[in-house]
Design a protein that fits this description.
homodimer; 275 residues; alpha+beta; PSTPO5379-like fold; 2 domains; eight-stranded antiparallel sheet; four-stranded antiparallel sheet; 12 strands
Chain lengths: 275, 275
């Protein structure tokens, strides 16, 4: 159902609440984005956070105040029916840093005088390139959500966004394949690019608590001849927004995609390098 | 001598080997840059490193292959007499990652078929703004070189540049002034922007060995009512180049400014925010 349709048709399924699953493997060939929607008081700080941390938070487009149905880059979304309030399969709704519910739409609580949406590149985009190089990630082969971990590596702070940790995604590879994997993914500058670390010693360097128990996504088997390879992950932005919300007196809603449940874009995986 | 002259005149003093000191406070009002000159084999990887780590490695201009007397941004250097082979007060000359000598010119060993120069923003540029806000850094008041430390915080890797640590500069401030200090410096996006961490607990987070013994620059007194405030520092790029040199079979020279002995630019401190 979600394979032979266009991005616009897929987003209509989300809009109509006919699809609410994770989007790994959905609408092959097209890029997907992490989504974060913030009140205007902290939106500038967040734009700075992205500029100061382009590997973890690669900003690819944003909405203007009052216009949830348009982004500032038509290469990314070019669709008159688009509406960021409804077109994600599943939203997390946060208040003061706490997830208060999941929802299939946030049209009822999006404040046109305040909310600004940010689209952040997603590592799903380079998975197609890895597949075509004979380096298919296990999570794709097994149709599971990728493993994601909280780390102790800190983003460069920006305004209210201080002490924000990197979240990383992990895909296991043979040590002899790592240089090829780095080379294939480094072209994808707007979707996290090459890995930020690799090997079992990286687990300690990144301060990952338990490789078998990812904080987000699904656990992933690592074979004896493989090592974990870690990429920066767009879920970083959600954790940052939650932390900022916790330390702010602001009572506004924050919205984000539910991890793995991304916004499907009109730009192809093969074109997103050019952004 | 170095106060009431133009950037071009100051660079001529360097060219003629009449000035070889550190440049803190020299040619007030004008920005200064960290310099790194690399063989072409690793220049693309370094440009990627800058793109992936804009806070530590804010690239503001570079030379083209074969043209050490011109940079790709005329706002930064606009001077027919400019020559990156001679216009620094003091160069470090490296081979395979080791400093083999300091020199007042590298004209004799710059390879026109290989070397590419990179100019990286320098935190001296925001010191003028701090001064005018009544927040003069101690190193400026005492006319000493700023304290700089190696950390265990890693850059996002790019090609041959893997496992490269951040180098930070430190200026002590009263804890109550930190938010103002952050606000003043964050506008300087191309010269490291706001601090990356602050407070005595940051010393541990950053893995700094001994606050009293900076790896580069001069030690700096911290009063009882002050805390250390840490900015990313352009010396990061030198350490990265040394590491890359150590792990490469390449026998080419690498050049860099000696820490604190920067390239004086034609762009003003007040204009460098706009780059």
């Amino acid at each position: 159902m979600t394979v032979d349709i266009s991005p616009s048709e897929f987003r209509r399924l989300c809009k109509e609440n006919s699809f609410w699953g994770h989007t790994s493997g959905c609408v092959p060939g097209y890029a997907q984005a992490n989504v974060l929607v913030l009140p205007k008081e902290i939106a500038n700080d967040f734009a700075d956070l992205c500029a100061r941390n382009p590997v973890a938070c690669p900003l690819i487009a944003m909405t203007k105040l009052g216009s949830p149905n348009k982004v500032d880059n038509r290469l990314v979304i070019d669709d008159e029916d688009f509406d960021l309030r409804t077109d994600l399969p599943k939203y997390g709704v946060y208040k003061q840093g706490n997830l208060i519910r999941e929802a299939s739409s946030v049209a009822d609580c999006w404040d046109l005088d305040s909310h600004i949406g940010f689209l952040i590149g997603c590592s799903f985009s380079f998975e197609a390139a890895l597949i075509s190089e004979g380096l298919a990630p296990r999570n794709v082969l097994e149709k599971s959500n990728v493993s994601m971990y909280l780390t102790t590596k800190m983003l460069n702070p920006a305004g209210v966004f201080t002490r924000c940790p990197y979240v990383v995604s992990m895909r296991p590879y043979k040590a002899t394949d790592v240089e090829k994997v780095r080379l294939v993914t480094r072209e994808f500058r707007k979707t996290h690019g090459e890995p930020i670390d690799w090997g079992y010693d990286a687990v300690e360097r990144l301060g990952i608590k338990d490789l078998l128990l990812p904080e987000f996504g699904s656990p992933c088997r690592i074979e004896d001849d493989e090592i974990p390879v870690f990429w920066a992950c767009g879920v970083t932005t959600q954790v940052a927004a939650q932390q900022a919300g916790k330390h702010s007196a602001n009572d506004d809603y924050i919205f984000a995609h539910v991890p793995g449940h991304m916004l499907v874009l009109d730009i192809k995986d093969s074109e997103i390098c050019c952004l």
